[in-house]
Recover the amino acids of this structure.
């Protein structure tokens, strides 16, 4: 269990995440095919393969440098709506991490809040619009509560993952309001949002490393 994450810890987390997201290609493709373009799985494979190649065997001077490098690597090859938002999240977290030498619960809260703000600014979506924010915002809110309660990172990560998972499940009964899915209207009801599902996978991977 890790109460704090160093730059090297986060590099290892990103390597593990890359493998997890690549292995989830079929699941993400199937979810995205129901209400989207069907390219989410392939986007994850392309983007995270590029991240893995970029950071494997490399050392980074700071958490900020690492996160910004991951964002740059992903942007080199992957192009989709989700990719744009994920890149935005990594860039925002990287900039927020400029003064950080480690990540604990309060600092993880800072990074997630920055990620949420970047997605809302770029995508103009809100909680309840059936997007990745329906998983990301509950996770960020959970982290903030954990930080205020003084919880250590392992417990905070578990709670954030659970909050994201519950949020993603709620999207099944939502009607999409934005993006390509928004054009399908009522036809999106009954399908889990693929972006929210991807956020859950990311948090599951992070939590498995921390815990």
């Amino acid at each position: 269990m890790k109460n704090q994450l160093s730059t090297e810890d986060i590099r290892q987390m990103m390597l593990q995440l890359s493998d997890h997201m690549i292995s989830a290609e079929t699941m993400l493709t199937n979810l995205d095919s129901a209400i989207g373009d069907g390219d989410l799985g392939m986007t994850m494979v392309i983007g995270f393969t590029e991240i893995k190649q970029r950071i494997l065997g490399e050392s980074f001077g700071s958490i900020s440098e690492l996160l910004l490098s991951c964002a740059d690597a992903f942007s080199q090859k992957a192009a989709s709506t989700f990719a744009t938002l994920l890149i935005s999240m990594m860039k925002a977290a990287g900039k927020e991490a400029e003064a950080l030498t480690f990540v604990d619960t309060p600092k993880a809260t800072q990074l997630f809040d920055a990620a949420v703000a970047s997605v809302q600014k770029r995508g103009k979506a809100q909680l309840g619009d059936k997007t990745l924010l329906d998983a990301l915002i509950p996770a960020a809110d959970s982290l903030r509560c954990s930080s205020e309660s003084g919880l250590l990172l392992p417990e905070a990560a578990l709670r954030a993952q659970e909050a994201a998972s519950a949020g993603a499940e709620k999207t099944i009964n939502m009607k999409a309001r934005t993006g390509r899915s928004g054009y399908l209207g009522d036809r999106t009801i009954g399908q889990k949002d693929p972006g929210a599902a991807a956020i859950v996978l990311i948090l599951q991977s992070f939590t498995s490393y921390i815990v």
The mean pLDDT is 93.
